[in-house]
Design goal:
The protein has 414 residues and is an alpha/beta fold. Strands 1-2-3-7-8-9-10-11 form an eight-stranded parallel β-barrel. Helix 7 links the parallel strand 7 and strand 8. It folds into two domains: 326 residues, Alpha-Beta Barrel (TIM Barrel), CATH 3.20.20.80; 74 residues, Golgi alpha-mannosidase II (Immunoglobulin-like, Sandwich), CATH 2.60.40.1180. The relative contact order is 0.11. Helix content is 29%, strand content 22%. The chain is globular, with a radius of gyration of 22 Å. The mean pLDDT is 97.
């Protein structure tokens, strides 16, 4: 079994994480994150940012100017190596964001190898999807592909990272990833997370280990805002079950928070029930910087906008319980089974078992603002204990349960 079969991912927005916005300053949070149960740190791009055509005062993380250098805003290469080692000493893995499809306008390749880029009819570099600050690479160029692969290997060899989160992986020809991933894996077995959806782009999952559940994220927001019916949302879960690869579930990330709103803007009171789902359904849960506070503001993307930390951290324990359960319980590993349960009065109530041999987790989530009286008609019967409050639940045929508005039950079979 691979280490990532029981991992979780915590996305680090380094620029906004501390006043300093550096690797060294972030390292002060490592012990806290370990205590919360974080297993894998995903750093948004750590490479330098292009100045030409940059957006805002600081530019976009995703407009790279050199694939094998460190953004001086964050510190030095040695600072990053020290941070990686500290994280590993605490038992965490480290993956970095890799932006293969495009670079910024003053990337070193634009001077050294301008033929490695696509062109507009006018002859100018081709803007990536019409965005002014980034330009598209030409993946029909074999020399560029080889250098891209060498650049990825650099971070594995130099810093001993454990994998890559590949930005807009489906914008890049799949044959590049089919070449690159096996080659980079020769350095060591890595974890590969595609910013893609396995339903929309299943062909990418022949080489990637995991991908995002973008459809679920969008559809669950539509459901929260009464733009989607319950049966359509439930059927989407069945669709994901038949899709290839490990699924990554989330309620927020850097794009969602900055452009579409916090999880509370998107989901309202459904935010925490959906977080429970993300940590207990089959796959990998993903958290974004500050969700443990919870952070209630949209973070600026191109300018400094520090997360306002405090000592309260209201959701630290909530996520600690879920993340540690996900990492340690055999029924929640990526290879275990998920069984949607048959219940009465099931409108807006999701009930399921996670199962591995004799191990079982029972999850019941009320995705409505109403009290729901349900009767469980099939489940892995037995004695369970609620992981949040230690309440005992004897789960037996035709059991009747009253679920409060937005309530969730997560129980471990004894």
């Amino acid at each position: 079994m691979n280490w990532f079969d029981s991992t979780n991912i915590y996305e680090v927005n380094l620029r906004q994480y501390t006043e300093e916005g550096t690797f060294t300053a972030f390292s002060r949070h490592l012990e806290r994150l370990k205590n919360m149960g974080v297993k894998t740190l995903w750093f948004m791009p750590i490479t330098p940012i292009s100045v030409m055509n940059k957006k805002g005062s600081l530019g976009s993380y995703y407009a790279c100017s050199d694939y094998t250098s460190i953004n001086p805003e964050f510190g030095t290469l040695e600072d990053f190596k020290i941070l990686v080692k500290k994280a590993k000493d605490l038992g965490m893995k480290v993956i970095i964001d890799w932006v293969a499809n495009h670079t910024g306008w003053d990337h070193i390749w634009t001077k050294q190898h301008p033929d490695w880029y696509k062109r507009e009819e006018s002859g100018d570099f081709k803007k990536a999807s019409g965005m002014d600050d980034i330009i598209e690479l030409d993946f029909s160029n074999n020399e560029m592909r080889k250098e891209m692969i060498r650049s990825m290997k650099y971070w594995v060899n130099e810093c001993d990272i454990d994998g890559f989160r590949c930005d807009l992986a489906f914008w890049v020809r799949v044959d590049f990833w089919e070449e690159a991933i096996p080659e980079v894996n020769k350095t060591k077995k890595l974890f590969w997370l595609a910013e893609s959806d396995p339903i929309e782009h299943p062909e990418y999952m022949t080489v990637f280990n995991a991908a995002y559940t973008w459809q679920w994220m969008h559809k669950s927001e539509d459901f929260a805002k009464n733009r989607l019916d319950w049966n359509t949302l439930k059927s989407l879960l069945v669709h994901y079950e038949s899709a290839p690869g490990i699924k990554t579930w989330f309620t927020s990330n850097h794009d969602e928070n900055s452009w579409n709103g916090t999880e509370y803007e998107k989901y309202g009171e459904m935010a925490l029930p959906l977080a429970v789902f993300s940590c207990t359904w089959k796959g990998i849960p993903l958290l974004y910087s500050g969700q443990e506070l919870p952070n209630s503001k949209r973070l600026l993307f191109f300018d400094k906008d520090v997360i306002v930390w405090n000592s309260d951290l209201k959701l630290h324990h909530f996520y600690k319980v879920l993340l540690e359960l996900h990492s340690n319980h055999p029924a929640l590993k990526a290879g275990s089974a998920v069984k949607q349960l048959t219940i009465t009065n099931d409108y807006r109530v999701l009930a399921f078992n996670r199962l591995m041999n004799d191990a079982a987790i029972l999850v019941i989530i009320n995705l409505s603002g109403e009290i729901k009286e349900i009767e469980i008609q099939d489940a892995h019967w037995g004695q369970y204990k609620d992981v949040f409050n230690d309440k005992e639940h004897h789960i037996h045929p035709n059991l009747k349960i009253s679920i409060q508005p937005w309530q969730f039950i997560v129980a471990d079979k004894k």
